[in-house]
Amino acid sequence: MMLSTARALAMDDFPGTRPIGMGGTGRAYAIGDVGPMLNPSGMSLVKNFQVLEGAYGYSTRLHAHTLHASMVDNTSGFGIGGGLYYNYRATEPGGGVTGHGHEAGLALSIPIADRMTFGGTVKYFRLSGIDALDGGTGGVTFDLGTTITLLPKLSIAVVGTNLRDLHNSIATQGVGYGVALIPIQDLVIAVDGFTSFTPDNLTGYKGTSVMVGGDLTLAGKVDVRLGGGYDAATRNGFGSAGLSAVSEVGAIDAGISQDIFVHAGGRRATVVAVSLRLFIPSQQPSLTPPGTL
């Protein structure tokens, strides 16, 4: 009975610490670690070498703990970016039932023209326990994305997520899209959408989620993030906030997302995450104006 009521969520439900603080946005300005997680083509937008990012995330929805590690490099003279990441998730919904999931990804991005980048991520999932829903223990799938810089301060993006079907909602299939505006050098405003083709394993809902977020850098040392939106998987509205302390060689990030308007019969969910980044900035020119996410 516990297995039927505490069904697992898709393994790829951790977008990263900084997107969590911005309401889940970032597809149109997916620099650094955000690229492999949300839109691989974003890795070619800004030149840097993120030596390591380590993160921990927790969601109250199924009491899921996520450990994340990644590396992203875009310091070549050709603007080609590459990244790899690994996620481990432990799910403990109660009643003695547990689940475990491993996700590993390898991403590549290439500039196609002065105003366009294209990228892809190959991902491998391995699940056990409650996360192996209906015998779906994992497999290989992939994302494809593109980012177009319409104006020096305006970009749009489209991303196909988990385009190879792994069945049983192991990895949510859908299309993501976003717009990012950089009105001043230290401010990013993003609006994203995600249309899911896979019903949520817990609620059975699918549809289009809408997300809005902003990131403001203060004195080059502190990033403040706010966001919110509507989650089609739960039919709940949510708000989010995040904060980063940034130096020349690293940053400490924190983010939180909390359901505010709860669908009738639904449950309120909270997601928190913290991360540590080590990076080597590059003096080479970027495809977009400087900014942070």
Q: Could you tell me the number of beta strands?
A: 14
Identify the overall geometry. Answer: globular
SSE topology string: HHHEEEEEEEEEEEEEE
- Per CATH, the architecture is Beta Barrel
**Largest beta-sheet characterization:** 14 strands, antiparallel, barrel
- The domain count comes to 1
Mind telling me the C-alpha Rg? 18 Å
By secondary-structure content and strand pairing, the structural class works out as mainly beta
Percent of residues in beta strands: over 45%
CATH third-tier fold name? Porin
Average pLDDT rating: 88
For the structure shown, list the relevant keywords:
mainly beta, 14-stranded antiparallel β-barrel, 3 helices
Short description:
5% of the residues lie in helices and 57% in strands.
Describe the structure.
- It is a single chain.
- By secondary structure, this protein is mainly beta.
- The protein has one domain: Outer membrane protein transport protein (OMPP1/FadL/TodX) (Porin).
- The protein contains three helices and 14 strands.
- The longest helix has 5 residues.
- The radius of gyration is 18 Å and the shape is globular.
- The termini are far apart.
- The N terminus and C terminus are likely disordered.
